[in-house]
Amino acid sequence: MKWNRSSLAGRIDHTLLKPQATDEEVKRLCREALEWGCASACVNPARLPAALEVLRGSGVKACSVAAFPLGASDLETRLFETRRAVEMGAGEVDTVIDLGLVKAGRIEEAEAQVKAQVEAAGPAALKVILETGLLEKEEIAALVEACVRAGAAFVKTSTGFGPRGASVEDVRIMAEAAAGRIRVKAAGGIRTLDQALALLEAGAERLGTSGTRGILEAL
């Protein structure tokens, strides 16, 4: 596919998840997302009201996070955070799978949590972060299958806070396992146009990055 700035921006979640981000920084991020036509602006729950001041009623979705960045929240907390984000106006919620359950071989329990969060999200898209830098290839493929069964909208590579970010190999594994049944989002350390295009070529349908400006200006 031949990309231009508009088509590429439409695949990007313009992201600001650093803990020290202020309301004003988030509003600036959201104005940029509107200017460029990004898919969403992704922010922490405490900054979601500021994001919605700018994005509400626009074509750019407000995206928030749940059980982020560790995935070590219990189900009740996950569901509260998911419902609360949607009630406030988020159109998408990125959540982290319970890696402790995954590593203990309890993938069915992790899948049940995801299914419950999908139901809690209602009309909002739930994107499930696998944190692929902590997983074996077989675990990545198994979790994609679990998220398909649970009804999630996306599987996502990384939080940006893990041991490494998105890799072309991980995206290929995810896309192959997805087989068109669930979308793939690559996130974590995406800073250059070459990286972005390689990840899209490998099968990602969405990119999460705080480096949106540099990527688009390089196109």
What this model shows, in words?
The chain has helices at residues 5-9, 23-36, 48-55, 75-88, 99-103, 107-121, 137-150, 168-178, 193-202, 212-217, and strands spanning 12-16, 40-43, 61-66, 92-96, 125-129, 154-156, 183-187, 206-209. The protein is of the alpha/beta class. The protein has a single domain, classed as Alpha-Beta Barrel (TIM Barrel). An eight-stranded parallel barrel has the order 1-2-3-4-5-6-7-8, surrounded by six helices. Helix 4 (75-88) packs parallel to helix 6 and helix 7 packs across helix 8. The longest helix has 15 residues, at 107-121.
CATH architecture group name: Alpha-Beta Barrel
CATH class: Alpha Beta
CATH superfamily: Aldolase class I
Please describe the biggest sheet, giving its number of strands, its sense, and whether it closes into a barrel. Answer: 8 strands, parallel, barrel
Shape: globular
Distance between the termini: 13 Å
CATH T-level fold name:
TIM Barrel
Strand adjacency order, main sheet: 1-2-3-4-5-6-7-8
User: How many individual β-strands?
Assistant: 8
Helix content: 40-55%
Binned strand content = 15-25%
Q: In terms of per-residue confidence, which ranges show pLDDT below 50 for 5 or more consecutive residues?
A: none
Secondary structural class: alpha/beta
Tally of individual helices: 10
Q: Give the overall pLDDT as a whole number.
A: 98
Rg over CA atoms:
16 Å
Q: Note the run of SSEs as H and E.
A: HEHEHEHEHHEHEHEHEH
| Overall domain count | 1
